[in-house]
Amino acid sequence: MEPITLASGASYFKSPAMATTAAIDALNANKTFYGPTEGTAALRQAVCDKYSRQGQSVQPEQVLITPGSKQALFNLFSVLLRQGDEVVIPTPAWFGFHELMKYSCGTLVPLPTTLHDNYRICPEKLRQSLNGNSRILLLTNPGNPTGRLYSKAELEALLEVTNEFPNLYVISDEIYDHITYSQPFTPILSCVGAKKEKLIIVNGFSKSFAMSGWRIGFILGPDDVIKKCIDFQGNTLSGLPEFVQEAAQSTLEQSDEALEEMLPILAQNRQLMAAALDAMPGVTYYLPEGAYYFFPDFSAYLHKKTPQGEELGTSIKLAEYLQEHYNLAIAPGDKFGSPGHARLSFAIEPEKLQEAMERLTQGLSELV
Ligand code: PMP
């Protein structure tokens, strides 16, 4: 049986042709030396243009080009956090946040949300989780692993609470911003109550543009924070290769074309996965409005045994069983702060997805 993975965060799509062309042209033009730490002027401007198309006015000095969004977050954690600071993260959340925190000062404070409540962040619960030590509220919109998209009204209700805490920064990880289905994405910058001096956007090219291997992302934030991050980046990594920056610039400048192929396929795959999950008795899920994952609850199966007589008990064991007997990889929910669930990516070839869902259906039906 050929291996199939639904566990990866990278999609199967090719990087946009204009990215590859721009990188090759830049290499041929010998742009192979240190790039400017903060990013090329043209790419910083292209980032500003992306936000001005959404109606936001931002300046190049507010942008730092980073080697991926992960490093963007690490820069921010490094310059903003001091011992005793708290980072509030609604869960389930991408496991990378928790892993990054191991290398930063500060303590992660989970703010649990549930499938039962459609992964809504309750403003009152947010208020209860904040105090004088709270330094960062880290939102992910659209969410990974939930696919949850926050509406303008929801974001504004959250900002009303965060604005009561002058020491607090809101970081909005918007790396899946172009990947939406049923409703449009709301940039947090467009919300009433968005205080530019306390609001930071993290974004990148890995997801929307299938460019995870190029390692490029950016931070958009207040000048003083960006200055500190430039200093940190200059003294640790330096600037990104110019040919990578030119690839990213070209992609942003032609973003509609770059997104053309991917979005309709993802929309179809989403339907396919939803239909397969609907046919699995006892499996419940939130229909993702963005990103490319489902995060179903498999608890109804975890009291069962494998046909080989092994107890399951956790979605980690369920993942092991599917891997061993069906050559199918899924990402257990424990890593995301939601045991019993598992993250399934639908950003794979449609035929493989069909086959994966057949294997999953069969695997679950054979549990006793
Ligand atoms: N934030 C979120 C929510 C992600 O899902 C990921 C990748 N899985 C990242 C950041 C990191 O992305 P990058 O490849 O840009 O470092």
UniProtKB/TrEMBL annotation:
Enzyme class: transferase
Domain Aminotransferase class I/classII large: 4-360
GO biological process terms held by the UniProt record: amino acid metabolic process
Cofactor: pyridoxal 5'-phosphate
UniProt-listed Pfam families: Aminotran_1_2
Keywords: Aminotransferase, Pyridoxal phosphate, Transferase
GO terms for MF: pyridoxal phosphate binding; transaminase activity
EC number: 2.6.1.-
Keyword Transferase: yes
Family: Belongs to the class-I pyridoxal-phosphate-dependent aminotransferase family.
PANTHER family, per database record: ASPARTATE AMINOTRANSFERASE
Protein name, per record: Aminotransferase
